[in-house]
């Protein structure tokens, strides 16, 4: 039986949507933009990479580095160090009391890039302590929409199909805002969310549709079930109406 304090705590749990833009698609690529959103709260940070931007990445995102300055569509942007960006992200997550981190294709791409950066700066333990787990909306959407015959499950295509709008994709802040709106339309069940739940330690494992609860993971999944049942706040609705 859950105490009133526990029930109140579960009602305060939130979803945080996040996305990265990087120097390329290789395993050694670096972050150039980190963005996150939860309701009306947002975080948007730019970073100067140590390595070069790949030509294809620059063409898609509009980012270029010249004389140690970062430009977005030829306009200079204020940048943070990698440590500053990660510490700010951790502080943002801590605002919401162990939120569930949600992103599109994050299991195969964004989370490995994030984990490598956290480990490099010895911040992984602090980051992990701030979140409840991670959910990738790419396989989630594939499972939920498998009968619709969609040719592509890229985020911009899903937003166009389900929300009827186009947006400025490959800008991390615009991507997370669009994903938050998309997620509210998908409305996955708590059971479906739990099937797609992973951690930085398990992200390389193949997702299992039915699996036994690992030791020590039941509280995490119960928290996720509670999180998924939380109704959308007025603040969230206002954010989506402004999309």
UniProtKB/TrEMBL annotation:
Stated name of the protein? exodeoxyribonuclease III
Q: What gene is it encoded by?
A: plex9.2
> Can you quote a single GO CC term?
cytoplasm
Q: Where is the composition biased (Basic and acidic residues)?
A: 205-224, 231-243
* Ranges of residues in domain Exonuclease: 14-192
Q: Where is this region: Disordered?
A: 205-243
Species of origin? Notothenia coriiceps
Question: What family is this?
Answer: Belongs to the exonuclease superfamily. TREX family.
* Keyword Nuclease set for record: yes
Catalytic activity field: Exonucleolytic cleavage in the 3'- to 5'-direction to yield nucleoside 5'-phosphates
Give the protein's cofactors.
Mg(2+)
């Amino acid at each position: 039986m859950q105490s009133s304090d526990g029930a109140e705590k579960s009602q305060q749990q939130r979803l945080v949507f996040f996305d990265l833009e990087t120097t390329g698609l290789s395993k050694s690529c670096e972050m150039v933009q980190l963005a996150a959103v939860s309701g009306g709260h947002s975080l948007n940070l730019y970073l100067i990479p140590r390595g070069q931007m790949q030509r294809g990445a620059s063409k898609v995102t509009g980012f270029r580095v010249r004389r140690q300055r970062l430009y977005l569509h030829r306009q200079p942007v204020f940048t943070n160090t990698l440590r500053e960006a990660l510490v700010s992200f951790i502080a943002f997550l801590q605002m919401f009391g162990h939120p569930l981190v949600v992103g599109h294709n994050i299991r195969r791409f964004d989370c490995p890039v994030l984990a490598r950066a956290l480990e490099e700066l010895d911040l992984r333990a602090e980051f992990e302590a701030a979140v409840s787990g991670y959910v990738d909306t790419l396989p989630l959407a594939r499972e939920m929409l498998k009968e619709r015959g969609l040719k592509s499950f890229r985020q911009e295509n899903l937003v166009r199909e389900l929300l009827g709008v186009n947006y400025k994709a490959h800008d991390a802040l615009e991507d997370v805002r669009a994903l938050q709106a998309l997620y509210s339309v998908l409305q996955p069940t708590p059971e479906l969310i739990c099937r797609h739940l992973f951690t930085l330690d398990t992200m390389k494992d193949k997702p299992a549709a039915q699996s036994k609860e690992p030791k020590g993971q039941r509280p995490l999944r119960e928290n996720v079930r509670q999180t998924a049942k939380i109704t959308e706040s007025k603040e969230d609705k206002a954010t989506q109406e402004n999309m």
